[in-house]
Amino acid sequence: MDSFEALIGKNIDEVTLNESETFFIAPLQYSTKLCGRRYPSDKFKIADLDYFDLISFSELFKRQSLLIVWHDEDGLITDLEIYHLINDFDILFDDYNTIKKAIDDGEAHRLREGDTRYLGASRLDEKVPQPKSSKLANKREFVLKRKYLQKIINEMGI
Fold it and tell me: Which domain holds residue 20?
């Protein structure tokens, strides 16, 4: 990966961001409101969700921090921030358990991102079987929700 300082001012498409064992590398686009306040343009995928082999919470969050590479709508990298997810593990753990319970109860087809606060089970178009139910459920992925990313922006004051 390029040195951190060298990333500022480059286009996100021009840099190579390699995975790290220590933190998630999150290239996140933001938009700016007329008042100058930033907001995230999308959620951040952290893992695929497999109904029949659900990743454990500790494995899902073995990387306890995010290196956020903020870029604007034109792809220009403007900020780099490190955010420690461990500060929010209680809420993330509750969200994980909500998702896990729905899967364990054969209700994965009823999951909504609104069921959780920070960690979402984002729906994909493809339908797949689920445990303990004859109903097909949308394939999903674990994501950090936009609401959570907005909280991070607000806390960092950027």
Answer: 4-156
